Amino acid sequence: MKKDMILEKSNLSYWLRQLRKEMLLIGPMHGENGDIVLKTVENIHEIVLDCPALIPSPKEFLFPQKEEMFGFSTEGTKNYRNSKRRLIFGVRSCDVSAIGLLDRFYGGKFIDDYYTARRENTVFISVGCNKPDPTCFCNGLGTGPFLSSGFDIQFSDLGDRYLVEIGSEHGLSIVKKFSHLFSKPQKSDYDDQYEAILSSHAMFEKRINLENARQKILSGSVEDSFWAGVAERCFECGGCVYECPLCTCFNVIDRKYSAIEGVRLRNWDTCMFRGFTKMAVNVWPAEKKIMRTKRWYFHKLLYYPEQFGRFGCVGCGRCTITCPGRIDMATIAYRLKVGNNED
Amino acid sequence: MNPLRPLRALIKDIRPEAEGVKTYTISIESSFVPAPGQFNMLGFPGVGEAPISLSSILYNGCFDHTIKSVGRVTGFLDNLKNGDGIFVRGPYGRGWPVKEAEGMDILLIAGGVGLAPIRPIIQTILSRKKSFGSVSLIYGARDEKNILYTDEFKEWEDRISLYPTVDEVLDKKMWKYNVGLVTELLDKVKIRAERTIAFVCGPEIMMRFVCRGLLMNRISQSKIYVSLERRMKCGIAQCGHCQHNGLFVCKDGPVFSYKEVKGLPDGML
């Protein structure tokens, strides 16, 4: 489904205020230290509407860093349910693209209850990026800066108004009741959006082609010495994984409250960590750092396309900002292209 | 239904098999249809879970797990008694290709507790004697104390040629079989390569050499199957721990054809 509307900027605050009566509102806000993060909106006027393209990924709202799966006793288990409806405003096209892939990942043969419950209760409003950051490279992947489908609601900032594109029933559900706030888009609105998209594309500083990187690896011409160089620069901090909107590995741990009761949790885990594949009696398939670093790139560049027909990367560039060793996806794709690992 | 929530099952029987190895008979009150070679996530609240292959087919509503106490979870299970609860999720994964093996000679090769996932295949063969060609089992263990299912050998021998072997013999009077590596026994078995399918389970380094030995006996890569072991937290291809190149050992395996997993970087095959 696809339905387009126009929302005057002056109506946004009223609309969000009405929606907040029914659901939790989350949006880009100034954090305690001045950085902009997605968090629960206390005052709607404090939402940072002109925030940079890159803010922390909304992954944690669907797949929290730590979550209680179920309570247990020695007699059995009991489910925890998360049923709060949420509206997450101001996410980016790259994140929406990532969520589309996460939906497929968690909704395969085995449906993940926790993710699915959160997903069904969450509506995303994404805002197309008029001004990409220097680290962004979604343009080469078709995952931004604006999307033509796959979103709940996509806003295009046209100066004094938003072109509101509704792409799902989820999205429609929060517009329907307030149709008096919206008007029908004119041809000039679409012209303005087209202009915004064109000028956004022109502003990208990076041109990264992951398909080239993939082909290069598949051709077998990338020596292990290349990956050894990458591994040498890896601090094993796991930053890339935590920031990545598509990294989904988790660990499962049990917390006991008493001798017979407790809770089973899952938390984010990282294939970069040394103990990730360690088994009892020291059987350890990927102990060496080079294997762990390779695993991350291969998963995103080779195995994701095999499994889902899409790269495990949406070009958000968060790993570029996070990685202290400068071995982020964009840099490695570039180095694979030029064929060396030097600065 | 939430696939990550285990069900409480009951331990009906525990039999010691070898040093640190026990077979647990478990009954569960839900429809449970395992295939030979599949595994369960077994565990206990507060302790955790570990992926353990089923060591029997379903019988009288029960199934077996043969477990060696080597880590946190298996060490805990080692202390459980008859009538205790145990928490189960499964069965998971792709088991042995029984259909493909029908009408063929079957060569079973196991090392140590690697015999456990092979046992359901043996039981399947015994229950459908006419469906398969000639069947041989080469089974190696460290010494005779570490040989599993010795009391079942007699029943197996009616239908299957057994070639047990140990690395070293502790008591010469007690051991009437072979001494040496499993690979050395490949020469003793009459292999009709074009009609043989091989199922292998044991430590990965052992499987590496067994698979190479089988290739030398002209069995094709796609007719050799191995059962792999990896760290697993979910069993349903989501937690990422068992990822083996593009494969998830929990979902795409644990049984793979040698062709699929030969030479993969983070493995020994």
Q: How many extended strands of chain A?
A: 12
The total of beta strands of chain B comes to 15
Rg from Cα of chain B = 18 Å
User: What's the story with the biggest beta sheet of chain B?
Assistant: 7 strands, mixed
Mean pLDDT of chain A: 92
The overall pLDDT average of chain B reads 94
| Rg over C-alpha atoms of chain A, rounded to the nearest angstrom | 22 Å
CATH architecture heading of the largest domain in chain B: 3-Layer(aba) Sandwich
Q: Return the CATH class of the largest domain in chain B.
A: Alpha Beta
- Residue windows where pLDDT falls under 50 for at least 5 positions of chain A: none
Key structural traits:
heterodimer; A: 343 residues; alpha+beta; 2 domains; eight-stranded mixed beta sheet; 12 helices; 20% strand; globular; B: 269 residues; alpha/beta; Elongation Factor Tu (Ef-tu), domain 3; Rossmann fold; six-stranded antiparallel beta sheet
